[in-house]
Protein backbone atom coordinates (compact mmCIF):
# COMPACT_ATOMS: atom_id res chain seq x y z
CA UNK A 1 0.00 0.00 0.00
CA UNK A 2 1.21 3.51 -0.83
CA UNK A 3 -0.59 6.75 -0.08
CA UNK A 4 1.05 8.14 -3.22
CA UNK A 5 -1.15 5.84 -5.33
CA UNK A 6 -4.66 7.18 -5.82
CA UNK A 7 -6.51 3.88 -5.34
CA UNK A 8 -4.55 3.07 -2.15
CA UNK A 9 -5.11 6.62 -0.88
CA UNK A 10 -8.87 6.34 -1.49
CA UNK A 11 -9.07 2.87 0.06
CA UNK A 12 -7.11 3.80 3.20
CA UNK A 13 -8.53 7.23 3.99
CA UNK A 14 -12.01 6.61 2.62
CA UNK A 15 -12.57 3.84 5.15
CA UNK A 16 -12.27 6.20 8.14
CA UNK A 17 -15.47 7.50 9.79
CA UNK A 18 -16.95 10.65 8.26
CA UNK A 19 -14.37 10.87 5.46
CA UNK A 20 -15.23 11.91 1.93
CA UNK A 21 -12.76 11.97 -0.95
CA UNK A 22 -13.08 14.23 -3.98
CA UNK A 23 -11.12 15.87 -6.78
CA UNK A 24 -10.34 19.55 -6.21
CA UNK A 25 -7.41 21.91 -6.85
CA UNK A 26 -5.67 19.40 -9.16
CA UNK A 27 -5.49 17.00 -6.23
CA UNK A 28 -7.36 14.20 -4.48
CA UNK A 29 -8.78 15.76 -1.32
CA UNK A 30 -9.77 13.90 1.86
CA UNK A 31 -12.21 15.71 4.14
CA UNK A 32 -13.81 14.97 7.47
CA UNK A 33 -17.01 16.83 8.23
CA UNK A 34 -16.39 18.98 5.16
CA UNK A 35 -12.91 20.08 6.38
CA UNK A 36 -9.74 19.15 4.48
CA UNK A 37 -7.23 17.01 6.35
CA UNK A 38 -5.14 15.53 3.51
CA UNK A 39 -4.36 16.03 -0.19
CA UNK A 40 -2.68 13.84 -2.79
CA UNK A 41 -1.26 15.71 -5.77
CA UNK A 42 -2.43 14.61 -9.22
CA UNK A 43 0.83 15.56 -10.91
CA UNK A 44 4.37 14.26 -10.48
CA UNK A 45 6.29 14.59 -8.34
CA UNK A 46 3.58 13.09 -6.18
CA UNK A 47 3.19 14.48 -2.71
CA UNK A 48 0.90 14.08 0.25
CA UNK A 49 -0.10 17.22 2.15
CA UNK A 50 -1.45 17.12 5.71
CA UNK A 51 -1.85 19.10 8.93
CA UNK A 52 0.43 18.44 11.87
CA UNK A 53 1.18 19.87 15.29
CA UNK A 54 3.78 22.56 15.88
CA UNK A 55 6.49 20.19 17.12
CA UNK A 56 5.95 17.72 14.26
CA UNK A 57 5.98 20.61 11.78
CA UNK A 58 9.39 21.77 13.05
CA UNK A 59 10.83 18.23 12.99
CA UNK A 60 9.37 17.16 9.65
CA UNK A 61 10.40 20.27 7.72
CA UNK A 62 14.05 19.53 8.65
CA UNK A 63 13.92 16.28 6.66
CA UNK A 64 14.82 15.90 3.00
CA UNK A 65 11.72 15.73 0.78
CA UNK A 66 9.43 17.43 3.30
CA UNK A 67 8.60 21.13 3.36
CA UNK A 68 5.95 23.65 4.29
CA UNK A 69 2.86 23.17 2.18
CA UNK A 70 2.11 26.14 -0.05
CA UNK A 71 -1.00 28.06 1.01
CA UNK A 72 -1.27 26.04 4.25
CA UNK A 73 2.12 26.64 5.95
CA UNK A 74 0.91 29.17 8.50
CA UNK A 75 -1.44 26.53 9.88
CA UNK A 76 1.26 23.85 10.25
CA UNK A 77 0.67 21.93 7.04
CA UNK A 78 3.49 20.01 5.36
CA UNK A 79 3.99 18.43 1.96
CA UNK A 80 5.77 15.09 1.84
CA UNK A 81 7.21 14.13 -1.51
CA UNK A 82 7.41 10.54 -2.67
CA UNK A 83 10.87 9.28 -1.75
CA UNK A 84 11.03 11.17 1.55
CA UNK A 85 12.61 9.33 4.49
CA UNK A 86 9.20 8.59 6.06
CA UNK A 87 8.09 4.98 5.85
CA UNK A 88 4.55 4.22 4.65
CA UNK A 89 3.55 3.39 8.25
CA UNK A 90 4.94 6.71 9.52
CA UNK A 91 3.23 8.64 6.75
CA UNK A 92 -0.08 6.94 7.49
CA UNK A 93 0.32 7.70 11.21
CA UNK A 94 0.87 11.40 10.44
CA UNK A 95 -2.19 11.45 8.18
CA UNK A 96 -4.24 9.77 10.93
CA UNK A 97 -3.07 12.49 13.31
CA UNK A 98 -4.11 15.12 10.76
CA UNK A 99 -7.55 13.49 10.63
CA UNK A 100 -7.76 13.65 14.44
CA UNK A 101 -6.61 17.29 14.58
CA UNK A 102 -9.21 18.38 12.05
CA UNK A 103 -11.98 16.18 13.49
CA UNK A 104 -11.29 17.64 16.94
CA UNK A 105 -12.32 21.04 15.55
CA UNK A 106 -15.75 19.74 14.57
CA UNK A 107 -18.67 20.06 16.94
CA UNK A 108 -19.31 17.16 19.27
CA UNK A 109 -22.72 16.72 17.64
CA UNK A 110 -21.24 16.47 14.14
CA UNK A 111 -18.53 14.05 15.31
CA UNK A 112 -21.27 11.90 16.83
CA UNK A 113 -23.33 12.01 13.61
CA UNK A 114 -20.24 10.98 11.62
CA UNK A 115 -19.42 8.11 13.99
CA UNK A 116 -16.19 9.66 15.23
CA UNK A 117 -15.20 8.84 18.81
CA UNK A 118 -14.79 11.72 21.28
CA UNK A 119 -11.38 10.36 22.30
CA UNK A 120 -9.31 11.04 19.19
CA UNK A 121 -6.00 10.23 20.86
CA UNK A 122 -4.54 13.72 20.58
Your description of this structure?
By secondary structure, this protein is of the alpha+beta class. The chain has one domain (6-114): Aspartate Aminotransferase, domain 1 (Alpha-Beta Complex). It contains four helices and six strands; from the N terminus they run H-E-E-E-E-H-E-E-H-H. The chain has helices spanning 6-13, 54-60, 88-104, 108-114; strands at 19-24, 27-32, 35-41, 47-51, 66-68, 77-81. A six-stranded antiparallel sheet has the order 1-2-3-4-6-5, covered by helices on one side. It is globular and about 40 Å long. The mean pLDDT is 90.
| General form | globular
Quickly count the helices.
Answer: 4
Task: Summarize the biggest pleated sheet.
Answer: 6 strands, antiparallel
Number of strands: 6
Helix content: 25-40%
The CATH topology is Aspartate Aminotransferase, domain 1
Query: Kindly, what is the distance between the CA atoms of the first and last residues, rounded to a whole number of angstroms?
Result: 25 Å
Strand content: 25-35%
Whole-number tally of structural domains:
1
What layout of secondary structure does this protein have?
Elements lengths: L5 H8 L5 E6 L2 E6 L2 E7 L5 E5 L2 H7 L5 E3 L8 E5 L6 H17 L3 H7 L8
Antiparallel strand pairs: 1-2, 2-3, 3-4, 4-6, 5-6
